[in-house]
């Protein structure tokens, strides 16, 4: 029996790095310090696995599947490489290289979650921090359109709510928590203050808050369903905090206004820095979606929605983002890595995806593997394969290899390397 | 003027990138050279003649060249991109980036135009008789400078974020606008004769520009403050010029209408003007 300590959890953007995992006879037998979702991921990683590589549903040797995948991508006019947020960074780098070789488009799940965040940050900048700094200093924590009590289960305990820090010795008692949301959630219930905003009206509220922070008197009785007095009071609370942080989620990025909501949030935080220290951090969902953005930026200069069809990288969300391309019927093949777009994309888009040859690298059976022409089973990153992942605040952490994958099963990076070689790319 | 006619052979799902469809690129070449100009479909490099029947005459200079795309080309991107003289007429729908970064000449789309039409336009006239989709005359992602000159006239409605980061130039919309028209605007003029969508002028700083709405506004941001109601002389000049030089005849209906003036966006300390014609 082996006990691994300080194991990094490969589930959500928190990347909790204090897990203890017990391994016996090559199987995970126990997990300590993990949330329910994390524990389930470790203990059930052997269930519902893809058994063997397949082409058109027929089991084939790995080499044949790699050949078929490479042929599809090589002969397509407009291949799309998508996913990447639930694997490690070397695999992401190789996927970008493969997209370049194939003359295709590489996109990651940012385009359906925090892509608008990236757009806004490119437009107006970002005041960044780490979760460690939040733990040690933040006395005002605002959750806006995010519900960590159900999506990032240990966030509040480890970093933003209960945690005792160097300058926050009493933990929860020293912090004032505000939750802005359209409905009551687990997070609004544990917050000191719940601000109920009307659906799709976050932009107006953010703008009004910024104007109030600038000292302007609002004429409207209420903004986005929030009384004027409450807006002014919240603005004052933000200005007088010692260290404030806004954690925002898909409630802000995927509601009406999208990247403009984040633009307004960044503007508000920038304004607050004329008065105190204030920062903001996106609540990233998939555990390495930050890595997908980071690695793609290293290699191409752009974080997602990158087109290589002209031989050099071009970036244009809305044009080269996967949902938009598939909705227009533009892609004529797709390589999906560590993602399940069939479960998450709109129905019309999935219908178009079903019309083209799809190659999928995954460790589990998913609706996407079910409609794929070529399926290649891979090792589970963070359990059966090591690598690096980026936490929601941009801190890189090392994922562990705890158990050996089944014989003949390789990591995402190894399979992608095989495809690159098969397509005539450089081997290294 | 010499006329070159391009007839699209088919509308394809995978778009064709054809920035060569521009008087600036085509003038001074032989017809054979024009037919062999490169276009791209996905990663495949093809020739103009692979996608279009190319006939007609080629002029010596861009200013003497008229190009007519005779049919629907919603799959063709970048037509007229960066053109600086001459005329281009698309007798149907046009694809993304039509007239983007154009610096001169006249481009007419008789149908509708896809996203980013006239993006970062510097000069010339772009007319779209139908609708324009999102990001008309806008800045490309990451850029803080959108339209810096020229004039865009849209016969129908426009999508969201039209004129984002606008610095100079003019956009006239006869139909309705979607949200975030004039977002981050810092100069230039926008005139809307239909109904203006919400979040008009969000984050706009002003710098001498204005947004004039003649068909009402869905909703103003709480960070715009009412100033006054007045009939500015300059607006009558604008409206007359629109009718006389750009055939925007509905402009004449508003010559004597008083305008409500709102100032904002206060969230960014802006001094932009939104002028709303009284019904």
Core attributes:
heterodimer, A: 428 residues, alpha/beta, Rossmann fold, Dimethylsulfoxide Reductase, domain 2, 9-stranded mixed beta sheet, 18 helices, 21 strands, 21% strand, B: 279 residues, mainly beta, 4-stranded mixed beta sheet, elongated
The string of secondary-structure elements of chain B, in order, is EEHHEEHEEEEEEEEEEEHEE
CATH domain class of the largest domain in chain A: Alpha Beta
What is the percentage of strand-forming residues of chain B? 25-35%
The CATH architecture designation of the largest domain in chain A is 3-Layer(aba) Sandwich
Helix percent of chain B reads under 10%
The helix tally of chain B amounts to 4
Mean pLDDT of chain B, to the nearest integer, reads 96
The residue fraction in helices of chain A comes out at 25-40%
N- and C-termini, Cα separation of chain B: 45 Å
How many domain regions of chain A? 2
Number of helices of chain A: 18
What spatial form of chain A do the alpha-carbon principal axes imply? globular
Low-pLDDT regions of chain B: none
How many strands of chain A?
21
By CATH, the topology of the largest domain in chain A is: Rossmann fold
Largest sheet of chain B: 13 strands, mixed
Secondary structural class of chain B: mainly beta
Q: Tell me the distance between the termini of chain A.
A: 36 Å
Report mean pLDDT of chain A, rounded to a whole number.
Answer: 95
- Biggest β-sheet description of chain A: 9 strands, mixed
């Amino acid at each position: 029996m082996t006990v691994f300590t300080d194991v990094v959890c490969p589930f959500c953007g928190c990347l909790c790095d204090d897990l203890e995992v017990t391994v016996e006879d090559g199987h995970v037998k126990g997990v300590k310090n993990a949330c329910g979702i994390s524990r389930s991921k470790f203990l059930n990683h052997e269930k519902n696995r893809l058994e063997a590589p397949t082409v058109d549903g027929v089991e084939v040797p790995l080499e044949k599947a790699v050949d078929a995948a490479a042929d599809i991508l090589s002969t397509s006019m407009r291949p799309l490489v998508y996913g990447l947020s639930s694997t490690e960074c070397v695999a992401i780098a190789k996927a970008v290289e493969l997209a370049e070789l194939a003359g295709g488009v590489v996109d990651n799940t940012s385009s359906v979650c925090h892509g608008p965040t990236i757009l806004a940050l490119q437009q107006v900048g970002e005041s960044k921090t780490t979760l460690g700094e939040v733990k040690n200093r933040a006395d005002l924590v605002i959750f806006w359109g995010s519900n960590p009590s159900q999506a990032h289960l240990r966030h509040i305990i480890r970093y933003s709510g209960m945690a005792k820090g160097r300058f926050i010795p009493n933990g929860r008692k020293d912090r004032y928590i505000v939750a802005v949301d359209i409905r009551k959630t687990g997070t609004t219930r544990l917050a000191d203050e719940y601000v109920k905003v009307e659906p799709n009206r976050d932009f107006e509220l953010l703008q009004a808050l910024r104007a109030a922070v600038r000292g302007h008197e609002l004429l409207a009785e209420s903004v986005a369903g929030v009384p004027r007095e409450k807006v002014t009071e919240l603005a004052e609370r933000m200005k007088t905090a010692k260290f404030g942080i806004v954690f925002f989620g898909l409630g802000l990025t995927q509601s009406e206004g999208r990247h403009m909501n984040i633009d307004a949030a960044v503007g508000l935080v920038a304004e607050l820095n004329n008065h105190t220290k204030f920062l903001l951090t996106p609540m990233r969902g998939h555990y390495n979606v930050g890595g997908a953005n980071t690695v793609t930026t290293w290699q191409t200069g752009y974080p997602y929605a990158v087109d290589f069809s002209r031989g050099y990288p071009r970036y244009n969300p809305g044009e080269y983002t996967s949902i938009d391309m598939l909705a227009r019927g533009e892609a004529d093949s797709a390589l999906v890595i560590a993602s399940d777009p069939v479960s998450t994309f709109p129905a019309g888009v999935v219908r178009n995806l079903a019309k083209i040859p799809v190659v999928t690298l995954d460790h589990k059976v998913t609706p996407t593997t079910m409609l794929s022409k070529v399926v290649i089973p891979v090792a589970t990153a963070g359990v059966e394969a090591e690598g690096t992942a980026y936490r929601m605040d941009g801190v890189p952490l090392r994922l562990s290899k705890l158990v050996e994958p089944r014989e003949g099963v390789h990591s995402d990076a190894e399979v992608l390397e095989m495809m690159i070689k098969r397509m005539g790319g450089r081997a290294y | 003027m010499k006329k070159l006619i391009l007839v699209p052979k088919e509308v394809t799902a995978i778009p064709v990138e054809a920035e060569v469809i521009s008087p600036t690129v085509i003038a001074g070449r032989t017809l054979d050279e024009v037919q062999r100009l490169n276009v791209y479909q996905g990663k495949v490099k093809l020739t103009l003649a692979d996608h279009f029947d190319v006939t007609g005459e080629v002029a010596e200079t861009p200013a003497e060249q008229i190009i007519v795309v005779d049919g629907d080309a919603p799959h063709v991107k970048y037509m007229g991109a960066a053109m600086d003289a001459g005329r281009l007429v698309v007798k149907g729908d046009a694809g993304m980036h039509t007239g983007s970064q154009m610096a001169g000449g006249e481009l007419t789309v008789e149908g509708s135009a896809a996203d980013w039409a006239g993006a970062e336009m510097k000069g010339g006239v772009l007319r779209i008789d139908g609708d324009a989709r999102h990001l008309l005359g806008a800045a490309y992602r990451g850029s803080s400078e959108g339209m810096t000159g020229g004039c865009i006239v849209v016969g129908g409605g426009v999508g969201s974020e039209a004129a984002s980061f606008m610095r100079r130039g003019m956009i006239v919309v006869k139909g309705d606008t979607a949200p975030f028209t004039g977002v981050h605007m810092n100069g230039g003029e926008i005139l809307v004769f239909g109904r203006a969508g919400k979040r008009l002028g969000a984050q706009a700083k002003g710098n001498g520009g204005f947004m004039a709405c003649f068909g009402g506004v869905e909703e103003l941001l709480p960070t715009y403050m009412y100033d006054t109601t007045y009939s500015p002389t300059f607006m009558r000049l604008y409206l007359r010029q629109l009718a006389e030089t750009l055939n925007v005849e509905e402009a004449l209906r508003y010559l004597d209408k008083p305008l409500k003036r709102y100032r904002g966006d206060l969230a960014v300390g802006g001094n932009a003007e939104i002028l709303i014609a009284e019904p």
